[in-house]
Amino acid sequence: MPEEQPERGQEQEQAQEQNAILNQIQKLGQTQAPEAQSNIHCLTIVGQIEGHLALPPKNKTTKYEHLIPQLVAIEQNDQIEGLMVILNTVGGDVEAGLAIAEMISTISKPAVTLVMGGGHSIGVPIAVASDYSFIAESATMTIHPVRMNGLVIGVPQTFEYLDKMQDRVTQFVVSHSNITEDKFRELMYSQGNLTRDIGTNVVGTDAVEYGLIDEVGGLGHALGKLQNLIDENKGKQPDEQVVQ
Amino acid sequence: MILYTIYPHDVIFDEEEDQAKKKQKTLEMNGVKLIVEETEGDDYKILQLISSDPNHFLDQRYQPGEMVTMKPLL
């Protein structure tokens, strides 16, 4: 438009530009925001991890139907070079939690997890699923056995089923972190740490000491590590491409 | 479904139904998922933004409390 009317002054041009923005707001209810690209995408796992049943509305939930397509998009999009997962969760559905953990562990791009506040129960496998994990000094992770409420029909079978489910969680954590199976089970079944319950509340530095988490750190450490992993990954890629 | 959580069963499964929750919708705008609450007519208030792109959280259009207007496509 400025080419058509070269005699137009700068002020008029500005006024027209503002008018165009105003029109856009009136028509679409929005303006174009400046495009900024981030090479890192971030998933936040908060509240209850929701599974196959929708939890009552007062629960704050992380829904796996939202997370899984996002993980697929992150894997597939060339612009995204790394994944950052921030956890502050009280646990939730075993199957949904394990699904998210498996997705994070099998993503080909560098992934870093950071536990802030709490990463309890089924949050533990998610926290260890990445290439490198961080825990804030004040953050905690509660390790306890899988439990069940309600009517049980066929006690031995149910026990067997629960035991297998427990094993799936334990195996995942053991194979994705440096903790030994014996140590993990010891923490899970220890008495006196949680009042009237069995299990252990593992605080930041202890989680690192037991080998569950790689390092104590915060946001800056985690982003720095992710950037390092991205750089390493970039260095490796040409070799991989030759193989095809 | 087995829940593996530190919260007691009765805290999660509280009987109280939240009426406000029924007016909530999940919709997609410019490829960004939003949880919105119906206010009046075609206007919706943004409650939550679901995205893995950290820049979406800096975008003024998607801030919680912002209004979006949706008209049915005819």
TrEMBL record, chain A:
<dbReference type="InterPro" id="IPR001907">
    <property type="entry name" value="ClpP"/>
</dbReference>
<dbReference type="GO" id="GO:0006508">
    <property type="term" value="P:proteolysis"/>
</dbReference>
<keyword id="KW-0378">Hydrolase</keyword>
<dbReference type="GO" id="GO:0004252">
    <property type="term" value="F:serine-type endopeptidase activity"/>
</dbReference>
<keyword id="KW-0645">Protease</keyword>
<dbReference type="Pfam" id="PF00574">
    <property type="entry name" value="CLP_protease"/>
</dbReference>
<dbReference type="InterPro" id="IPR023562">
    <property type="entry name" value="ClpP/TepA"/>
</dbReference>
<protein>
    <submittedName>
        <fullName>ATP-dependent Clp protease proteolytic subunit ClpP</fullName>
    </submittedName>
</protein>
<dbReference type="GO" id="GO:0004176">
    <property type="term" value="F:ATP-dependent peptidase activity"/>
</dbReference>
<dbReference type="InterPro" id="IPR029045">
    <property type="entry name" value="ClpP/crotonase-like_dom_sf"/>
</dbReference>
<comment type="similarity">
    <text>Belongs to the peptidase S14 family.</text>
</comment>
From TrEMBL, chain B:
<dbReference type="InterPro" id="IPR025619">
    <property type="entry name" value="YlzJ"/>
</dbReference>
<dbReference type="Pfam" id="PF14035">
    <property type="entry name" value="YlzJ"/>
</dbReference>
<protein>
    <submittedName>
        <fullName>YlzJ-like protein</fullName>
    </submittedName>
</protein>
